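Why this split exists: single-chain examples teach little about how molecules sit against one another. For that reason, every record in the complexes split bundles all components of an assembly together and asks for one structure covering all of them. Below is a record exactly as it appears in the raw files.
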Amino acid sequence: MKLQYITLALTALSLPAFAAESHENMHKMPDGMMKDMDMSSMDKPATAAQQAQGDKVIIAKVNGLVCDFCAQAIKKTLMKENGVTDVKVDLTAKTVTVGLKADATLEEARLKGLLKDAGYDMTAYKVQ
Amino acid sequence: MRPSYQLAAISGLLAGTLPLAVWARPITYPGGVNVMVGHDPLMDMVHTDYTINKNWAVGWADTNYRQDDYNTHGPQVTRGWRWNYPDSQANVYVSGGAGPTFIDDKTRLSGWGGASVDWEDRRFYTQAGTNFQTTANGPDFLWQSARVGVAPYIAEAGGLHSWLMLQVDHTPGEAKTWSATPMLRQFWGDYLWEAGVSTRGGVMLNLMKTF
């Protein structure tokens, strides 16, 4: 029975944590990603990756993004690719933002294939 | 294998719901390794799976059937299928393996298999699965389970993800056939952990780490 109390306590403790996390991430998100993603929203700059590297940024809309393990799998897969400097996953906007070195390229077919290999389906692609 | 187990196993396969740690996804990104450690009132297990590609993983399973005092070890293979939707994801996993079982100072050959089907979005989670193990001149084990879960809040990538879940287990070979386990599941980065209390008497503790 003690574990039940621990479980309840963990849940209670996690609620404030989630609130802070979600609030923080909402501020980090580009405006275009605050609503359901459409093609026009992909014209908004992906500031996090751009600011981090000051290089090219690709935004991909992806089906199947439902949990943090999805985000981790995609990050680990794409970070192995030459020229990729940063990967951000937005579970709300269903987007993957990829930062590239200035002289690097990541063609649509290649990114779609990498995401497919990781278990996800790319439905839109935009180079910023 | 006793006829009742055969029938149940076949029924499970036909229903599309059959081993593994039913609580976790054995397949991750290509080249990734999942380590899953689990404890419940009936058994302890350690599964390590290496993901070859989005459809296949190979691994090693160590399972200690504590209640019946025997343990099994060996390689296993998992095949997965995934369906991605804009706001949700569905998976089917089928796996099987074989290896020695150590029981009463004797070594027997065992085979095991199972399947799991799940669907989830960011708010709701459902899953069902069946596992079975058969041992030459030894005990058989059949385990069916189903889960439902709800996320009390929606976390972003990198945040702490929490789920309140209820797992119902059916183990026809045990004295207590049915049990239910309410639990808390949380994700954080590469880690997943679960803690619950079973009506069978005892706790369920699961931990998974992806490398």
